[in-house]
Amino acid sequence: MTAHFTDLAHPHDLVGIGIGPFNLSLAALADRIPPRDGVPGAGSVPGPGGVPGAGAVPAPLSTAFFDQSPAFHWHPGLLLDGATLQVPFLADLVTLADPASPWSFLNYLKARDRLFPFYVAERFHIQRAEYDAYCRWVSERLPGLHFGHQVDAVRWNGERDVFEVDFTQLDADGEAEALGRVHTRHIALGIGTEPYVPDPLRPLAEAPTVPVIHSADYLDHRDRLLAAGHITVIGSGQSGAEVFLDLLRARPAGAERIHWLARTEAFAPMEYSKLGLEQFTPDYTRYFHALPERARDDLLPSQWQLHKGIGPETIAAIHDELYRRTLHGGWPDAVLTPGVHVRTAGRLSTTRIELHLEHRRQATRSRLTTDAVVLATGYRERSLDRILAGLDPYMCRDASGRPRVDAHHRLVLDPGVSGSAYVQNAERHTHGVGAPDLGLAAWRSATILNHLVGGRTGTEPYTLPRRTAFTTFGLDGRDRTHTVPAPRGLVPLTEVR
């Protein structure tokens, strides 16, 4: 096994850990920063015509991004035919920070000779599979991305003022092939989320012979699920709705044999009103970040319908499909029950499963026997503790033991650490429901780069909007930048006498 090391005398400016949509956005925007005094870097600015590599010039940032996966894939188990993003196509990797970027979705369409068909189709919300293909197109052309590299540890070298990032290079089978280390002044963590399996169902999900799978792996197991006599879907969000609809459409009328269970009080639509969507703007993010920790923790659970509801079109499609099956009399053999949670679960035989259910409002209990379970129970942020164990002595935590994150999306570290550790989609507790939202990806990436480059050069590469919402969040105007005054007629509470 060969070891690979970078020159400690010439560290990277930025190393990204994880290459999901958020760090891919960061890499794409970093690649576009204009050159400064001919300083070379790992990225390159695409040349004339927006074609990467055509007449490219050096970029000022030396960057490298690592991911253990062999290639970019975005939720492959949920790329159902016809399933669309819940955000407009403008929520691509770059557009809301740099509309002229060659890494935009529109330029992807142009490069694929599909711009006019897209124009005629008049699609504001693109299919998930198309978003995945677009990101993969960017990842295959953007320099400085290293797939098949698993980051093992991050440490701070106080003598050299750099982070040390240890990694393992993997072969095509995912086996260790070589060890390496890179040095960098700053890091960006975009390690994403992982499927959440409730405790009562975890032993069954980990048993290979029992068909209890998370919706993240749905397409890989779809044929096996359709062959089951009875199927149970658990979870009331968009994924649960899409899986239920797909199974329903594939089962014969009158013999559907599907249960759909959810903890929520109803199979509720996602909040999609125009003013409601303003909670996914930078204005709201700044407002939320400025709230006291306890206020943020109290607020987050009440906002579930902003990100855990079901798209209205999907709800309508489910009802239409159920209604269609009543046209010749009778009702479909499909049971939809909200307000229910699984207390315990176990096997009845090699493959059959017994779920012990409880209805919270009725205070009643029941049992359900099923042949397969799909857990559409969402995702949780991956813990930073393992990968950042070497930084633990420097890390500041809140009252609940979570990492503190400042307004620039940086982990709050001991003042002796001169480098910045930025986080992406690991700061919902400090930045609110917009942390995992694709619509804020480009803005957050640009915010990170403005802080990183601005601290070194005194200039910010991206001009970001001062105001992004018609709604004024709070009475003191803190949701706006300091250059924007509080709305006329309102006096900040700190000035009231």
Q: State the low-pLDDT regions, or none.
A: 37-59, 481-497
**Given the structure, what is the number of helices?**
13
Q: Find the count of extended strands (DSSP E, 2+ residues).
A: 20
Strand content: 15-25%
Could you tell me the radius of gyration in angstroms? Answer: 24 Å
What gross morphology would you assign?
globular
Helix amount:
10-25%
Label the structural class: alpha/beta
* Residue-averaged pLDDT: 89
How many strands, which pairing sense, and closed or not: the largest β-sheet? 8 strands, mixed
Keywords:
five-stranded parallel beta sheet; alpha/beta; 497 residues; 13 helices
Overall description:
The protein is of the alpha/beta class. The chain is built from 13 helices and 20 strands. The chain has helices at residues 21-31, 105-111, 115-121, 128-141, 202-205, 218-226, 238-250, 282-290, 293-299, 304-307, 312-324, 428-431, 441-457; strands at 2-5, 12-17, 44-45, 57-58, 63-67, 145-147, 149-157, 162-170, 176-189, 193-195, 212-214, 231-234, 258-261, 334-337, 340-347, 353-359, 364-370, 372-375, 379-381, 421-423. The strands form five sheets. Strands 1, 2, 5, 6, 7, 8, 9 and 20 form an eight-stranded mixed sheet that branches. The protein has a five-stranded parallel sheet with strand order 11-18-12-13-14, covered by helices on one side. Strands 15-16-17 form a three-stranded antiparallel sheet, with no helix packed on it. Helix 1 (21-31) packs across helix 13 and helix 7 (238-250) packs parallel to helix 11. The chain is globular. The termini are far apart. Mean pLDDT is 89; it is low at 37-59 and 481-497.
